Amino acid sequence: MRRLVLIAGAVLLAGCGTSAQTAKNPEPTASTRPRMHRQNVGDVTVLTGVDDASGTGTMRLAVKVKDVVSTAAGRGAFEKPRKGERFAAVRFVFKNVGATGYHDSPTFGAKLIDASGNGYDPTVATVTAGPGFARVVNLARGQVRSGFIVFAVPRTARIAAVQYALNAGYAPEMGEWRVPLGADGPDHHGDQG
To answer: Residue 126 maps to which CATH number?
Structure first.
């Protein structure tokens, strides 16, 4: 009987899929891949997304990657990366330039890309480089917020780019900021101010 329950449970879980494969967030296909806006760290791009809060309208956010801190120290005694990894922190600046409010978690739309093309999602950590974002950020038209998003990456990884898209990464547009060679080394601590 116990074996039957375990098998039934495994079948149910296998049919659930991942959160990225739900009807609201389908896996990207060639026709649904976001339009890329490529620029350098320090540049601003305007990205659009769907206003999930009201179900109508389009969000427009001016997004800037202000700084990349290649090796960031965890703030607390227990906030340390796993063996063989380091924390990297990216300082984003968001300004709502659309007609609708922005109500989202900015962390879920970010990704760090290394020189080998590997992508890294954010991790939950606070760093001494500066404050992060609240779990949910609310921005009325014209409002601005700045904060760090933290990633755990291999110690030897060279950070090549930072990506960001609204709607937890599923918006029709994505920004990609190239990180200059030398600004990503393990000793680069970036602009702390």
So the answer is: 2.60.40.1240
Report which of 179, 174, 137, 177 is spatially closest to residue 46, judged by C-alpha positions: 174
Number of domains within the chain: 1
DSSP 58-115: EEEEEEEEEEEEEEE-BSSTT--PPTTEEEEEEEEEEEE-SSSPEEE-GGGGEEEEET
Instruction: Give the tens place of pLDDT for each residue, 152-192.
Output: 999 999 999 999 999 989 899 999 999 987 655 444 444 33
At residue 10, φ and ψ (nearest 5 deg) are: -65, -40
Contact (CB, 8 A) for 70 and 184: yes
Report the C-alpha gap between 21 and 2 in whole angstroms. Answer: 30
In-domain check, residue 3: no
| H or E stretch at 8 | helix 2-14
